[in-house]
Write a structure and sequence with these properties.
alpha+beta; Beta-Lactamase; 31% helix; PAS_fold; PAS-like_dom_sf; transcription cis-regulatory region binding; AHR/AHRR
Length: 236
Protein backbone atom coordinates (compact mmCIF):
# COMPACT_ATOMS: atom_id res chain seq x y z
CA UNK A 1 0.00 0.00 0.00
CA UNK A 2 2.81 2.41 0.87
CA UNK A 3 4.43 1.77 -2.51
CA UNK A 4 1.31 2.69 -4.47
CA UNK A 5 0.71 5.79 -2.33
CA UNK A 6 4.25 7.01 -3.02
CA UNK A 7 3.90 6.42 -6.76
CA UNK A 8 0.63 8.36 -6.85
CA UNK A 9 2.17 11.30 -5.00
CA UNK A 10 5.19 11.17 -7.30
CA UNK A 11 2.94 11.47 -10.35
CA UNK A 12 1.30 14.57 -8.88
CA UNK A 13 4.66 16.13 -8.06
CA UNK A 14 5.72 15.68 -11.68
CA UNK A 15 3.10 18.24 -12.68
CA UNK A 16 0.59 15.81 -14.13
CA UNK A 17 -1.80 15.81 -11.19
CA UNK A 18 -4.55 17.97 -12.70
CA UNK A 19 -4.35 16.28 -16.09
CA UNK A 20 -4.35 12.80 -14.54
CA UNK A 21 -7.29 13.66 -12.29
CA UNK A 22 -9.35 14.76 -15.28
CA UNK A 23 -8.44 11.61 -17.22
CA UNK A 24 -9.30 9.31 -14.32
CA UNK A 25 -12.67 11.00 -13.83
CA UNK A 26 -13.55 10.31 -17.43
CA UNK A 27 -13.02 6.58 -16.88
CA UNK A 28 -14.63 6.32 -13.44
CA UNK A 29 -17.74 4.64 -14.81
CA UNK A 30 -16.22 2.47 -17.52
CA UNK A 31 -15.72 -1.30 -17.13
CA UNK A 32 -12.04 -1.03 -18.15
CA UNK A 33 -10.68 -1.39 -14.62
CA UNK A 34 -8.02 -3.49 -12.96
CA UNK A 35 -10.40 -6.35 -12.22
CA UNK A 36 -11.21 -6.85 -15.90
CA UNK A 37 -7.50 -6.68 -16.72
CA UNK A 38 -6.83 -9.53 -14.27
CA UNK A 39 -9.66 -11.58 -15.79
CA UNK A 40 -8.25 -11.13 -19.29
CA UNK A 41 -4.67 -11.85 -18.22
CA UNK A 42 -3.56 -15.47 -18.50
CA UNK A 43 -1.68 -15.29 -15.22
CA UNK A 44 -1.19 -12.97 -12.27
CA UNK A 45 0.98 -10.07 -11.10
CA UNK A 46 3.62 -10.42 -8.42
CA UNK A 47 6.19 -8.19 -6.72
CA UNK A 48 9.22 -9.95 -5.24
CA UNK A 49 11.77 -8.07 -3.17
CA UNK A 50 15.40 -8.72 -3.98
CA UNK A 51 15.66 -10.41 -0.56
CA UNK A 52 13.15 -13.02 -1.71
CA UNK A 53 9.98 -11.82 0.00
CA UNK A 54 6.60 -11.87 -1.73
CA UNK A 55 5.73 -8.19 -1.35
CA UNK A 56 2.51 -8.34 -3.36
CA UNK A 57 0.47 -10.76 -5.47
CA UNK A 58 -2.89 -10.26 -7.13
CA UNK A 59 -5.77 -12.35 -5.82
CA UNK A 60 -5.90 -14.14 -9.18
CA UNK A 61 -2.89 -16.20 -8.05
CA UNK A 62 -5.33 -18.57 -6.36
CA UNK A 63 -6.71 -19.73 -9.70
CA UNK A 64 -3.23 -20.77 -10.88
CA UNK A 65 -1.40 -22.02 -7.77
CA UNK A 66 -4.23 -22.66 -5.31
CA UNK A 67 -2.74 -20.35 -2.67
CA UNK A 68 -4.87 -17.56 -1.25
CA UNK A 69 -3.36 -14.11 -1.64
CA UNK A 70 -3.07 -13.60 2.12
CA UNK A 71 -1.25 -16.93 2.56
CA UNK A 72 1.83 -15.94 0.57
CA UNK A 73 2.21 -12.16 0.92
CA UNK A 74 5.24 -11.31 3.09
CA UNK A 75 6.38 -14.94 2.94
CA UNK A 76 9.65 -16.22 1.48
CA UNK A 77 9.27 -16.95 -2.21
CA UNK A 78 11.94 -19.65 -1.91
CA UNK A 79 9.50 -21.76 0.09
CA UNK A 80 7.13 -21.67 -2.87
CA UNK A 81 9.50 -22.72 -5.66
CA UNK A 82 11.13 -26.03 -6.53
CA UNK A 83 14.39 -26.61 -4.66
CA UNK A 84 16.28 -26.94 -7.95
CA UNK A 85 15.07 -23.50 -9.11
CA UNK A 86 15.86 -21.50 -5.98
CA UNK A 87 19.43 -20.63 -6.96
CA UNK A 88 18.33 -19.41 -10.39
CA UNK A 89 15.55 -17.30 -8.86
CA UNK A 90 18.00 -15.77 -6.41
CA UNK A 91 20.27 -14.75 -9.30
CA UNK A 92 17.36 -13.22 -11.18
CA UNK A 93 16.43 -11.08 -8.16
CA UNK A 94 19.93 -9.57 -7.93
CA UNK A 95 20.10 -6.39 -9.97
CA UNK A 96 23.68 -6.92 -11.20
CA UNK A 97 23.61 -10.65 -11.97
CA UNK A 98 23.06 -10.38 -15.71
CA UNK A 99 24.88 -7.22 -16.71
CA UNK A 100 26.64 -7.49 -20.10
CA UNK A 101 30.47 -7.28 -20.11
CA UNK A 102 30.46 -3.68 -21.36
CA UNK A 103 28.31 -2.65 -18.36
CA UNK A 104 29.97 -4.81 -15.71
CA UNK A 105 31.26 -1.80 -13.73
CA UNK A 106 28.05 0.24 -13.80
CA UNK A 107 26.66 1.37 -10.45
CA UNK A 108 23.12 0.99 -9.16
CA UNK A 109 22.25 4.68 -9.51
CA UNK A 110 23.37 4.60 -13.14
CA UNK A 111 21.54 1.40 -13.98
CA UNK A 112 18.31 2.92 -12.63
CA UNK A 113 18.45 5.71 -15.22
CA UNK A 114 15.76 5.44 -17.93
CA UNK A 115 18.31 4.83 -20.68
CA UNK A 116 19.66 1.79 -18.80
CA UNK A 117 16.40 0.26 -17.58
CA UNK A 118 16.69 -2.55 -20.15
CA UNK A 119 19.58 -3.92 -18.07
CA UNK A 120 17.09 -4.70 -15.29
CA UNK A 121 14.59 -6.59 -17.43
CA UNK A 122 14.03 -10.24 -16.57
CA UNK A 123 12.55 -13.21 -18.44
CA UNK A 124 12.87 -16.73 -17.01
CA UNK A 125 10.89 -19.77 -15.87
CA UNK A 126 10.51 -21.19 -12.36
CA UNK A 127 8.54 -24.12 -10.97
CA UNK A 128 6.13 -22.95 -8.26
CA UNK A 129 4.33 -25.15 -5.79
CA UNK A 130 0.75 -25.74 -6.89
CA UNK A 131 -2.13 -27.04 -4.79
CA UNK A 132 -4.50 -27.66 -7.69
CA UNK A 133 -5.43 -31.24 -8.59
CA UNK A 134 -4.56 -31.00 -12.30
CA UNK A 135 -0.82 -30.57 -11.65
CA UNK A 136 1.99 -32.77 -10.35
CA UNK A 137 2.54 -30.51 -7.35
CA UNK A 138 4.45 -27.84 -9.28
CA UNK A 139 3.53 -25.47 -12.09
CA UNK A 140 6.21 -23.95 -14.33
CA UNK A 141 5.65 -20.21 -14.67
CA UNK A 142 7.03 -17.84 -17.26
CA UNK A 143 8.10 -14.73 -15.31
CA UNK A 144 8.64 -11.48 -17.20
CA UNK A 145 9.28 -8.13 -15.60
CA UNK A 146 11.81 -5.59 -14.41
CA UNK A 147 13.75 -4.85 -11.24
CA UNK A 148 12.68 -1.43 -9.94
CA UNK A 149 12.91 0.71 -6.83
CA UNK A 150 10.33 -0.26 -4.21
CA UNK A 151 9.14 3.11 -2.95
CA UNK A 152 7.52 3.76 0.42
CA UNK A 153 9.79 1.51 2.50
CA UNK A 154 11.17 3.03 5.70
CA UNK A 155 14.67 1.62 5.44
CA UNK A 156 17.87 3.47 6.14
CA UNK A 157 20.48 2.11 3.77
CA UNK A 158 22.90 3.39 1.18
CA UNK A 159 21.04 1.66 -1.65
CA UNK A 160 17.28 1.95 -2.26
CA UNK A 161 15.19 -1.21 -1.76
CA UNK A 162 14.62 -3.06 -5.02
CA UNK A 163 11.99 -5.52 -6.18
CA UNK A 164 11.06 -7.49 -9.27
CA UNK A 165 7.72 -6.37 -10.72
CA UNK A 166 6.57 -9.26 -12.90
CA UNK A 167 3.76 -10.88 -14.83
CA UNK A 168 3.60 -14.62 -14.12
CA UNK A 169 1.93 -16.87 -16.69
CA UNK A 170 1.80 -20.66 -17.07
CA UNK A 171 4.65 -21.81 -19.29
CA UNK A 172 3.55 -23.17 -22.66
CA UNK A 173 0.19 -22.91 -24.44
CA UNK A 174 -2.77 -23.85 -22.23
CA UNK A 175 -5.04 -26.67 -23.29
CA UNK A 176 -8.70 -25.98 -24.02
CA UNK A 177 -9.65 -27.65 -20.75
CA UNK A 178 -7.39 -25.31 -18.76
CA UNK A 179 -8.63 -22.05 -20.30
CA UNK A 180 -11.21 -20.36 -18.04
CA UNK A 181 -14.56 -20.06 -19.78
CA UNK A 182 -15.28 -16.38 -20.40
CA UNK A 183 -18.51 -14.81 -21.59
CA UNK A 184 -17.09 -14.13 -25.07
CA UNK A 185 -15.91 -17.71 -25.64
CA UNK A 186 -17.89 -20.44 -27.37
CA UNK A 187 -17.32 -23.84 -28.99
CA UNK A 188 -18.04 -24.93 -32.55
CA UNK A 189 -17.38 -28.13 -34.50
CA UNK A 190 -16.23 -28.09 -38.14
CA UNK A 191 -15.52 -30.53 -40.97
CA UNK A 192 -12.08 -30.72 -42.56
CA UNK A 193 -13.15 -28.13 -45.15
CA UNK A 194 -14.16 -25.87 -42.22
CA UNK A 195 -17.87 -26.35 -42.93
CA UNK A 196 -19.84 -25.82 -39.74
CA UNK A 197 -21.21 -28.93 -38.04
CA UNK A 198 -22.51 -27.47 -34.79
CA UNK A 199 -22.22 -24.46 -32.48
CA UNK A 200 -23.10 -24.13 -28.82
CA UNK A 201 -25.91 -21.78 -27.67
CA UNK A 202 -23.45 -19.13 -26.48
CA UNK A 203 -21.92 -18.87 -29.95
CA UNK A 204 -25.32 -18.50 -31.58
CA UNK A 205 -26.22 -15.76 -29.12
CA UNK A 206 -22.94 -13.86 -29.60
CA UNK A 207 -23.01 -14.07 -33.40
CA UNK A 208 -26.77 -13.59 -33.70
CA UNK A 209 -27.50 -16.53 -36.02
CA UNK A 210 -30.34 -19.03 -35.85
CA UNK A 211 -29.99 -22.76 -36.51
CA UNK A 212 -31.55 -22.40 -39.95
CA UNK A 213 -29.14 -19.62 -40.91
CA UNK A 214 -26.10 -21.55 -39.72
CA UNK A 215 -27.20 -24.65 -41.64
CA UNK A 216 -26.60 -22.83 -44.94
CA UNK A 217 -23.29 -21.22 -44.00
CA UNK A 218 -19.75 -22.43 -44.54
CA UNK A 219 -16.91 -21.85 -42.11
CA UNK A 220 -15.45 -19.04 -44.18
CA UNK A 221 -18.82 -17.26 -44.23
CA UNK A 222 -18.28 -16.48 -40.54
CA UNK A 223 -14.90 -14.82 -41.11
CA UNK A 224 -14.37 -11.14 -41.90
CA UNK A 225 -13.11 -10.46 -45.42
CA UNK A 226 -9.86 -8.92 -44.14
CA UNK A 227 -9.08 -12.09 -42.16
CA UNK A 228 -9.82 -14.65 -44.88
CA UNK A 229 -6.19 -14.97 -46.02
CA UNK A 230 -4.97 -15.47 -42.45
CA UNK A 231 -7.61 -18.13 -41.68
CA UNK A 232 -6.95 -19.91 -44.99
CA UNK A 233 -3.22 -20.02 -44.24
CA UNK A 234 -3.84 -21.48 -40.78
CA UNK A 235 -6.36 -23.94 -42.24
CA UNK A 236 -3.84 -25.53 -44.62
Amino acid sequence: KSYFQVVMHKDKDDGGGLHRSRDLTAFDHTPLDGEMFLQALNGFLMILTCEGEVFFATHSIEGYLGFHQSDIVHQSVYELVHSEDREELQRQLMWNSYLPPESANIGLQDVLLPENCHLLERSFTVRFRCLLDNTSGFLRLDIRGRVKVLHGQNRKSEEPPLALFAICTPFGPPSLLEIPQKEVMFKSKHKLDLALVSMDPRGKMLLGYSDSELANMGGYDLVHYDDLAYVASAHQ
